[in-house]
Structure formats: structure tokens, C-alpha cells
Amino acid sequence: MSIFTNKNIEDALLNSKKVAIAGHIRPDGDCIGSCTALYMYLNECRKELGLERVDVYLEPFGEEFNILSGTEHIRHTSDNDEVYDVFISLDSSSPDRLGFAIKYFESAKKRICIDHHITNVFFADINHVVADASSTCEVLYNLMDNSRITKDIAKSLYIGIVHDTGMFKNSSTSDKTMEIAAGLIRKGIDFTRLIDETFIQKTYMQLQIMGRCLMESQVLLGGKVIVSSIERKVLDFYGASFGDLNGIIDQLRTAKGCEVAIFIYETNENEHKVSLRSNSIVDVSKIAYYFGGGGHIKAAGCTMAGTVQDIINTLTPHIEEQLRAGNAL
């Protein structure tokens, strides 16, 4: 029985002694879930594939994801000069999104990209990109042999799907997504706990920051756009990390009458991360891609230079153009 449904991927991994896995910068639930799921799956099939070593590289992430097995083995720095036989990029639309792990991608003998972003630039030797999938975890599930998916692997895959679909609310959710989720639940996972502890629950500090961002938000273009931002010094005041900002953009999007939500946070001096969400008309992936980022039609992001007001002034005409084309203004 095959280990992967994609023969090219299986052949590339066969007898590859050293394998590296990495996801995108500022890893989210789908990134963490897919990386830990594949890490465990490869270890389950280690003997059949002839693997000797599997390493995972990700930037630090929130403690709530430690509920997943395999997180304890993730490396958060590139403090070795290992050359891998195969490098697998997960949930990254371009190589620059790999962050510090890019050195292992560049030196690897073979490179595989598994992703679901419509803006993926097909940057590896083998590219398995399913743009209409809800998440990279959904793509991975369809690559795996279901009989080899353990309860722990199922937990990771479920987390990724839940986070990228916004608990099955986003338009990327399909009947196939729901069928996969049901199959993972049948593996015996405590899905209620997984959702509560990684998606819904917030610390008091996180609630304070979210409340502040909501209170200081502003609307543009007749209420069609809602924008909020936070400076690095405010994060430092609360002792917060970027991971503590999860969920703010999705809360902004719930404003009645809003077509686009923008959340901007300072990453370095004169540099900001921009998250974009759309409710129906605007394709935010086109806007993000224009500014060097990427993502999906209704959820995308990019990094931009300048002040918050500079960024708002730059983005607004692109959003306005699409709103007018859709007769929303």
C-alpha cells in the first residue's frame, strides 16, 4: 500500500536519509498543524521510506499549540549547517515566507512544496498546490493513507482545518472539508477541547489588547472598510507577542456592513504586517500580492513599509477600485 497518494512525493522521500520540514513565518494553526502532522506521519513510515532523521523548523508560537504532539521536537533556530536530502515546505506560498529556514531550503538536494494558497509561485522541484482546499492540513490529509493516520496526527490535522476555516465558517469550507473533519473525529480526538484551547480561549491580556484594538478602530469608505492597528511599544507594555494578536482581524470583520477588515501591527521600525479579510466582494489576495504578500481571496496579508497612515492611504484606493467595480460604493 502506498504511503502517499502522490507518487512523485513518495519517490522523492524514498531512501532520503535526512528530511527537513518548515512552514511560514509567524506560524498559525494550519502551519503548526500541518508541520506536526507530517512530522509524525513520516516517523510512522520511517522504516518503509528509509528515513533516518526528520527535523521541523518553525518560528516560536503560542503555548496553546503545545497541546499537539510533536511540538516539543520543533527547532526554532537555524543554529546548524545541516544539508538535507529533502526539504518540505508547508503552507508557504513563496520561499521568502520560510524565514530563517530558507537556508535549509536552498541547500537541500530535493525540495517539495505542499500548499493551498492561490498566490503560490511554485518554487520547489515538486509542487503540490490545491488552491481550492480549505487548508494545507486538508491537502495533507488527502495525500496520506488514512489507515496510517494516528490519533495524534488526526489532532494536528483537525487543528489546521479548524483554524484556517474559522471553525468551518469561511467560504473555503466545502462538503469535502466536513467529511475529512468527521473522519478525523472518528479517530477519537477530543475536538471540543482542541477548539476551545487553541482557537476560542483568550488570556486576560489578549482580551485587553483585542478590546483596545476594537475601541481604537476606524471605518472608511462609508463603513465598507474597518481598520485597526497596534504599535510595538503597546505590545511591549503588555508583554505580548505577535501570537497574542490572533483573532483580532476576524473580530473586526464581523462589523455589520463591513466588506474589508484591515489589521496593521508594527514588526520593526517603519515596517508593519498587514492582515486583510474580505466578506464578499473584494479579492484581498490580489491586493496582498501587489504589495509582495499573498494568501486567499478572502484572507491575505503582506508586509509594508511606512507609517500606519501611509499604509492605509496606500491600500484604500486598491480596495475602493474593487468595491466600485462590484457596485458596492
Give a quick rundown of the structure.
Residues 18-161 form the DDH domain. The chain has 2 domains: 7-200, inorganic pyrophosphatase (n-terminal core); 204-325, Roll (Diaminopimelate Epimerase, Chain A, domain 1), CATH 3.10.310.30. It is 38% helix and 18% strand.
Task: Describe the SSE topology.
Blueprint: H1 7-13, E1 18-22, H2 29-44, H3 46-49, E2 53-57, E3 86-90, H4 102-107, E4 110-115, E5 126-129, H5 136-143, H6 151-164, H7 175-185, H8 191-200, H9 204-215, E6 218-220, E7 225-230, H10 232-238, H11 248-252, E8 260-268, E9 271-278, H12 284-290, E10 294-295, E11 299-305, H13 308-325
Parallel strand pairs: 1-2, 1-3, 3-4, 4-5, 7-8
Antiparallel strand pairs: 6-7, 8-9, 9-11, 10-11
Helix pairs in contact: 2-6, 5-6, 6-7, 6-8
What does this structure look like?
This protein is α/β, with parallel strands linked by helices. The chain has two domains: 7-200, inorganic pyrophosphatase (n-terminal core) (Alpha-Beta Complex), CATH 3.90.1640.10; 204-325, Diaminopimelate Epimerase, Chain A, domain 1. Helix content is 38%, strand content 18%. The chain is built from 13 helices and eleven strands. It has helices spanning 7-13, 29-44, 46-49, 102-107, 136-143, 151-164, 175-185, 191-200, 204-215, 232-238, 248-252, 284-290, 308-325; strands at residues 18-22, 53-57, 86-90, 110-115, 126-129, 218-220, 225-230, 260-268, 271-278, 294-295, 299-305. The strands form two sheets. The chain has a six-stranded mixed β-sheet. α6 (151-164) packs antiparallel against α7 (175-185) and α6 (151-164) crosses α8 (191-200).
